[in-house]
Structure formats: structure tokens, C-alpha cells
Amino acid sequence: MNGSSGTPVSATPGHSAVYPGSFDPLTRGHLDVIERAAQIFDRVTVAVVVNPQKREPLFTLDERETMIRSSIAHLDNVEVDHFRGLLADYVRRRHATVIVKGLRVVSDFENEMSTALMNRSLSAVDTVFLPSDPRWSFVSSTLVKEVYNLGADVADYVPPAVLALMRSRRPSTVPPHDRSSA
Ligand code: PNS
């Protein structure tokens, strides 16, 4: 994009975005959102919540951060961090100007809308929603864990670094198309 002087300018100069989540584990859908956010904003921090409130995580905080770090190595304006407590406090501490969230399906919007308004009320930081790429609109960490725990191969749904760790935890996993020849 060119400014009026013809000088190339960033689409949103000075914007530092936080992309928060449990990332238990990072999916290809998450990575797609990160890559697109990295094109829009000057800096993107992938912020892993320390204790997801939902349930016991499959991966430790260290594992989740390491898998993300490996998966974003090609993006030089993206970093990984973690936070405890309120997201609103974290974005204020980091002087972030935007929270990024991905929206996969319409039902995501209902939760995310009230969360975004609460976060703006608490921190004055707005949330920008990026629609999920249709290829990943059915992919969630929860479903990936469920099918993985039931023996499915998850190569299509998670980045290679995540797949490597998942396979190392369950070395006997054989992709379904190889099973018949075993
Ligand atoms: O990947 P997830 O599990 O959907 O991410 C949820 C997350 C981490 C973004 C959300 O639980 C969160 O913001 N937690 C921090 C606690 C907080 O600020 N809660 C109030 C939200 S209005």
C-alpha cells in the first residue's frame, strides 16, 4: 500500500496486536489467523493463557509455547508470550492496541462479541475479528484432541511441529491409509 507521497506504508502503522488463546494445541486454523494478522499489524504477540479455565490442558505451557514458536519461525514480526489472569490487564501492560480473534462459525460470534465488549470496557482495547479460512472452519483444538485421543491421525489439522510432538507421545500412530498395508 502506498501513502500520498508514494512511500510504502503499513496498513495500520504502529498497531501491536495480541492474539490470545489456550492453543492446546495450536491448529492450522490458528496459524492461518496468525499469518494474516502478521500482514495487517506491525507486531503480533501470540499470548498463551497459563491456565485454560475449561479443563486440564493436554500440553504444558512450555510445550504449547515451544510448538507455537517453531510454527511461527518464518514470521519475523510475531512473538510468543503467556499471561495469567485478565486478558485486559495483559494487553494494557503490553501497550497493545488491538486484540485479534478468529471466527470460525456464527456461534463463535455470540461469545466473542460479549467478550470483546467486556475487554474493551476493561482496557479500552478493541477486538478485530478475522474470519477463519473455510479450510479450517471445522478445526478446533478441542476436536483435534478428541479425534487424536480416539486414534485418528491429525496431520491435516495441526502444523508439523505440533504433529511431531503429538506423534512422539503416541509413536504407534499409523496414518489410516497405511493401516491396511500393516
Ligand atoms: O483458545 P481459547 O480457549 O478460546 O481462548 C480463551 C481466552 C484465553 C482468549 C480467554 O479465556 C481469556 O481471555 N482468558 C483470560 C481471562 C479473561 O480475561 N477473562 C475475561 C474475558 S472478557
Notes on the protein architecture:
The chain has a five-stranded parallel sheet with strand order 3-2-1-4-5, with helices on both faces. The protein starts with 11 loop residues before the first strand and ends with a helix. It contains seven helices and five strands, in the order E-H-E-H-E-H-E-H-E-H-H-H. It has one domain (12-111, 118-169): Rossmann fold (3-Layer(aba) Sandwich), CATH 3.40.50. Strand 1, helix 1 (28-40) and strand 2 form a beta-alpha-beta unit. The protein has 182 residues and is of the alpha/beta class. Residues 20-22, 49, 52, 86-88, 115, 118-119 line the site of 4'-phosphopantetheine.
Largest sheet geometry? 5 strands, parallel
Residue share in β-strands: 15-25%
CATH superfamily: HUPs
What is the number of beta strands? 5
Order of helices and strands: EHEHEHEHEHHH
Mean pLDDT: 89
Query: What is the domain total for the residues?
Result: 1
Radius of gyration: 18 Å
Number of distinct helices? 7
Low-confidence spans: 1-9
* Helical proportion, percent range: 25-40%
Quaternary organization: single chain
Chain-wise SSE layout:
Layout: E1 12-21, H1 28-40, E2 41-49, H2 61-71, E3 78-83, H3 87-93, E4 98-103, H4 106-123, E5 126-131, H5 141-149, H6 160-169, H7 176-179
Parallel strand pairs: 1-2, 1-4, 2-3, 4-5
Helix pairs in contact: 2-6, 3-4
Bound molecules: 4'-phosphopantetheine.
Give keywords.
182 residues, alpha/beta, Rossmann fold, five-stranded parallel sheet, 7 helices, 5 strands, globular, disordered N terminus, binds 4'-phosphopantetheine
